[in-house]
Amino acid sequence: MNRSARLLTLVCLLFVAVDLRFDAASAVQEKPLRIGIIGLDTSHVTAFTALLNDPARQGHVPGGRVVAAFKGGSPDVESSANRIDGFTAELRDKWGVKVVDSIEELCREVDVVMLMSVDGRRHLEQVRPVFAARKRVFIDKPFAGSFRDAAEIVRLARESDTPFFSSSSLRFVEEVQSLRNDQALEGILGAVAWSPSPTEPHHPDLFWYGIHGVEMLYTLMGRGCESVTRTYTDGTDIVTGRWKDGRVGTFRGIRDGQRTYGAVAFGRKAVRGTSEKMRADYRGLVVEILKFFRSGAPPVAPEETLEMMAFMEAADLSRARGGAPAALSEVLK
User: Fold this and answer.
1) Which residues touch 300 (CB under 8 Å, ≥6 apart)?
2) How much is the pLDDT for 27?
3) What is the structure's pLDDT at 13?
4) CA-to-CA distance for 68 and 63, rounded, in angstroms?
């Protein structure tokens, strides 16, 4: 091969290498997802949008941007009616989010959806057009307003072959995940989790806020609870679940006294707990939402979400019985 031919070959190889490098960079730097929000009546919408839309923010989560929203709202829920206009104004004026007139229009503007309405009773009707449009969707707490609605959401997701997941942010707090995966425990035999638990008259008692502690409990215990007993006072709830394998898990709901979050796991070889000042934030959940939007693989199985709903609804049955046990099968049927 003469000198000119060798030079030409080297130039060609250089161009191939450059093309491969740019292809690899393109694969890493995926186009940001266009995210739509349904329901502008919870502080979660502004907190999540700030984490996603502000690259300069500490804890910024890259990969998606909130671009459109449907206002929604529930006039008979005080915390919705009193706050929706302020949250809507912040999303529109500070973050440049387009406020649209219908969920169908929202779905045409976005790649994926976060259903954030603070009123769980609205979620079934609001998610129907999202599943019809085959958009992956995260459904914020409370997942639904009843177990029956929750089961119908799961059925519609399967029928439309559209992935979804629902979770409290407390599941993905670093301390809770570290406790779940603590090898020193050598298996979790039982757990106690606690959180604030104010109630709202249009929802089963624990759906509104106790879900945070219940979610931590299930993060540690997993599925398999068969019955619950509940002790209720004006200031406190104690809900104890018996799992099919004989393990016992307890949720303490706080309405009177210091309103903190935390958990303790009882293992075969150790007992471990979260710190007294456990930091609860939204970033871990938002990271998981973005992963889910990309992969379509939910980090929380629908079956686990349904069982948590049954656990909380069975707790209401137990309360109505003066603390007598209630089987989850009574709700699941």
Assistant:
1) 165, 166, 167, 171
2) 34
3) 42
4) 16
322: left (phi over 0), alpha (psi -120 to 50) or beta: left
Give me the half-sphere count of Cα atoms (radius 13 Å) on the Cβ side of residue 284. Answer: 16
33-140 CATH, one of 3.90.550.10, 3.40.30.10, 3.40.50.720, 3.40.50.620 = 3.40.50.720
As a whole number of angstroms, the distance between CA 300 and CA 64 comes to: 21
HSE-CB of 325 using CA atoms within 13 angstroms: 11
Q: What is the pLDDT of residue 24?
A: 31
- State how far the Cα of 220 lies from the Cα of 189, in Å rounded to an integer: 10
**C-alpha–C-alpha distance, residues 255 and 38, integer Å:** 29
Q: How much is the pLDDT for 81?
A: 85
Are both 33-140 and 170-280+300-332 of the same fold?
no
Q: Name the percent of the chain lying above pLDDT 90.
A: 86
pTM for the full predicted model: 0.89
Measured distance CA(296)–CA(83) in Å, rounded: 32
Q: What superfamily does domain 170-280+300-332 belong to in CATH?
A: Dihydrodipicolinate Reductase; domain 2 (3.30.360.10)
Domain boundaries defined on the chain: 33-140, 170-280+300-332
d(CA 157, CA 301): 12
Rg of the Cα atoms in the chain: 23
User: With contact defined as beta carbons under 8 Å apart, do 190 and 284 qualify?
Assistant: no
User: Taking a C-beta distance cutoff of 8 angstroms, is the pair 99, 110 a contact?
Assistant: no
Look at 1-15, 93-107, 308-322 and tell me which has the smallest mean pLDDT: 1-15
